Amino acid sequence: MPEMTLKQKICQMLLPAFRCWEPGSSDAMSVGTMAQKLGERQFGGIVVFDRNIADPYQVSILLNLVGKANRESGGKTDYFFAIDQEGGRVSRLTGGTKFSGNMALGAANDESLVLETAGVIGAELSEVGFNLDFAPDVDVNDNPGNPVIGVRSFSDDPAVVSKLGCSFIKGLHEHGVMAVAKHFPGHGNTVVDSHVGLPMVDKSLSDLKKTELVPFEAIIGATDMIMTAHIQFPQIEKATYVSRETGEEVFLPATLSNTIITGLLRENMGYNGVVVTDDMLMGAISRHFDPLDAARLAINAGADLILMPVDLSTSGGFEGIDRYVDAIMSMVEKGDIPISRIDESVGRILTLKGKYSNVPKHAGISDWRSHIPFAWRSAFKAVTLLQNRNGLLPLSGNARVLVCCPSESARLSVDEALAFMVRSNIIPEKNNIEICIYGKTFDLPHDYDAFILISENKCDVQVPDDLADKVVFISAALPYDTAYAASCGAVLACYGYEGSLNLTVCLSAVFGTFMPKGRLPVTIPAPDGKAAWERGFRA
């Protein structure tokens, strides 16, 4: 380990975001000023969000300037340049290739497809200058009501999540990008979004070992980091803290739990790599814990990197993070945080940085348009046909069809699909396809040959019994809403998100462009509690 002051060591353990600089904002800091402020503090790294990225070239310049400022200020080691690029709903690289997401990959259930997807992601990130991706998400989505994971998960089958998670990590590594598996010990069974509240998973360790922990066991020797979850596990961690918001006792979440990080992850499961917290500004932590108490608890629990410790939404935020560093130094000097814990974490961080120190730097940014055909092919493989009564599909390009959209973004996907099918001679340019955006009181009219009813997690359109056989129901996002479409003539799922290729591709399947080959990556519970469709099903 190079000679470092206590302050330099603590800064190595911090990974802040800088949400104050936005392209085009009149009151934004200049790129040079922001880079100087970030680099001269010699942090372990920074994390970049889409609001900080105008295009790949701009952010590449920014990262280079931050690295330069770090070196010129005497920084002992290079930065982690991190981003959330899961490849689906959570994709921060403006200008990067849009992929269909993890649950779509789970529907295809093809390791080579995941490997190539992560390879493209890794190639694009490395060309810009990112060396750390907060991916893959290896949560097992075993709760259909989960508000934050959902289509970010490959499956509700831990074996599938394990297999595809390993392939994703391998794809990133092929381009010198470090991987972060998240969210330990599992975020798939929550009903509260930890961005706004403090979830609880009331499972025993033996139950977690059957589901949530399986993917982490599988990737433990491959991943570069593991990210913790801001979730209470009261059957594992019994220690409590008095909430600063409610005054009531809450259990220490995994991020702050020595029992979970050191006891379970390191000692029980044998993980020796870097542990990074989830965003410490999220509601699960910021609403209930004093920031410095949270820092002390996380470090003493065994966390190595503190992600987003202080709000940098204003220039005063830098003064705040300086005070944060000083406060942690004071805790170390008083013995509230053992210096051995600091040295242990910094040692892990520097070891990981050293492992990737000889990765070749890219000379420039290539033409990413060459990646688009693969993204389309990948999306095609995910579409799942669950029902097709009386041969309703494929629809004729000459049929009079009403496409019912739940939002303007869905309508844009429909427009794109129709244009694609016209170009491909699937439907005539002068067709009889109409589009509407429906509201909660919308009723289907009777004067159409067929209806395409698009749902984004919940559909309030009432389907009359005499029209049900004419309705093609498309689940555009989470597939669980297909449970309410059993009366429809045809039912498809495409596992998408706003602005994704998924819906565009699925609509083209409705008109016979290709035969859907995807299989359900999750079991769909019916309203009566039984299974409407089992995992692995396709019509």
Tell me about this structure.
The mean pLDDT is 94. The radius of gyration is 24 Å and the shape is globular. The strands form five sheets. The chain has a six-stranded parallel sheet with strand order 2-3-4-5-6-9. Strands 11-16-15-14-12-13 form a six-stranded mixed sheet. It has a two-stranded parallel sheet with strand order 1-10. The protein has two domains: 9-357, TIM Barrel (Alpha-Beta Barrel); 376-533, Rossmann fold (3-Layer(aba) Sandwich). It has helices spanning 6-12, 31-39, 56-72, 102-108, 111-128, 158-173, 205-210, 213-219, 258-268, 283-286, 291-301, 316-334, 339-355, 372-380, 408-423, 501-510; strands at residues 14-15, 45-48, 80-83, 132-133, 178-184, 225-228, 240-242, 249-251, 274-276, 306-307, 384-388, 401-405, 433-437, 450-455, 471-475, 490-493, 524-525, 531-533. The chain is built from 16 helices and 18 strands. Helix 6 links the parallel strand 4 (132-133) and strand 5 (178-184). The longest helix has 19 residues, at 316-334. It has 539 residues and is an alpha/beta fold.
Unreliable spans: none
Q: According to CATH, what is the class of the largest domain?
A: Alpha Beta
Q: Architecture of the largest domain, according to CATH?
A: Alpha-Beta Barrel
| H/I helix tally | 16
What percentage of residues falls in helices of 4 or more residues?
25-40%
Please tell me how large the radius of gyration is. 24 Å
